[in-house]
Amino acid sequence: MLLMDDPVLRSIEMTTEAIRARSTAHWIIAFSGGKDSSAALKIFLAAYRRAKVNLSRMTLIYCDTGVENPVLDAYVKAFLQKVRQEFVELGLSINIELLKAPIPDRFFVRIIGRGYPPPTNSFRWCTTGLRIKPVSEFIAKQNPDNTVVVLGLRQSESRQRDRALALSSNLYWQKQREGKGDYDLFLPVVEMSVPEVWDTIFGLSLPNALDKSDLETLYRGASGECPVIKAPTAPPCASGRFGCWTCTVVRKDKSANELIKSGHFQLRPFLAFRDWLAEFRNDPANRWHTRRNGSAGLGPFTIKARREILRRVDALEDLTATTIIDVEERGVIAALWTMDNFARLAFRPQGNC
């Protein structure tokens, strides 16, 4: 009876049974640094110790988009560095993989190199390219038919998600269908409410590297997270969540504003750049008037506009003492400019490009 009444104990029991049933599978724990994925990780570790079986392979993955909220990104990378050593000390054979999109698909390579306009609700290219695709390709290289991905998804987060979950007779087990194969999703926190997720984070001990107080402090002003596997048609991840600091899908980055109010003043120049980029995107003078397919309409940023964005990024790097565009990305950007300069007559841009 106690098991049925306590959602944390129920989740641990369900996860324990799942581990025992799929002990030969490759278990991949998808970690984004937010509360739900943190709770899912804690439940998985508690269940694994309880299951008393040796899993064939375990991997913890973090998808680095290169434009994550700087505060959350620093928190996650510090955690990953500490937890790697903790896994060794605990005798847990859990590999840690940092995933990243190929250089040509990265945020500023697409914007400054290819001239992509920053994402909008009608042209939201970022989620698929920066987050979903790197994870899907990593899983495809494993053995999808014998892979279980542990994901911190919860019921009642959205109507669309609830409709998808309702198709399964067991909420904890879901099937993810990809072009390169199907794999199983296991959702340890699927039935939990937000308070129950926090109960899990504060109530379970491992991993000790996860600083629950720091995480709770981050969530005081900005709640939620971007899952590493997400439908492209789902609501934008920055709506009251930890989104990318460059996100122009939403009108205002509420999470960044709240974090600044709570004392994270280092985010101010990042937010100022994001606001400037959103306005810059909407000025027709900054865009070619022919699309890449040759049809009429606003096309890519002009070369002049791309140079201005790069100049602003350089200034932001100097101001914040951070690397936003690395050397390899800059090389690809330069090559893409050369290609577009050769082809610019085909686009017949109006005005100075």
The CATH architecture assignment of the domain at 2-102 and 125-219 turns out to be: 3-Layer(aba) Sandwich
Biggest sheet: strand arrangement: 3-2-1-4-6-5
Radius of gyration, taken over Cα atoms and rounded to an integer in Å: 22 Å
Number of helices: 13
Which structural category do the helix and sheet elements fall into?
A: alpha/beta
**Largest beta-sheet characterization:** 6 strands, mixed
CATH-assigned homologous superfamily of the domain at 2-102 and 125-219:
HUPs
**What is the class of the domain at 2-102 and 125-219 in the CATH system?**
Alpha Beta
If you average the pLDDT, what whole number results? 86
Detail the poorly predicted runs. 230-240, 349-353
Shape: globular
N-C termini distance: 70 Å
Question: What's the total count of β strands?
Answer: 6
The secondary-structure element order is HHEHEHEHHEHEEHHHHHH
The proportion of strand residues reads 5-15%
- CATH fold description of the domain at 2-102 and 125-219: Rossmann fold
**What is the helix content?**
40-55%
Secondary structure layout plus pairing:
Layout: H1 2-5, H2 7-21, E1 26-30, H3 35-51, E2 57-63, H4 70-90, E3 94-99, H5 107-114, H6 126-140, E4 147-150, H7 159-165, E5 173-178, E6 181-186, H8 194-203, H9 212-219, H10 254-261, H11 268-281, H12 303-320, H13 327-347
Parallel strand pairs: 1-2, 1-4, 2-3, 4-6
Antiparallel strand pairs: 5-6
Helix pairs in contact: 2-3, 3-8, 5-13, 11-12
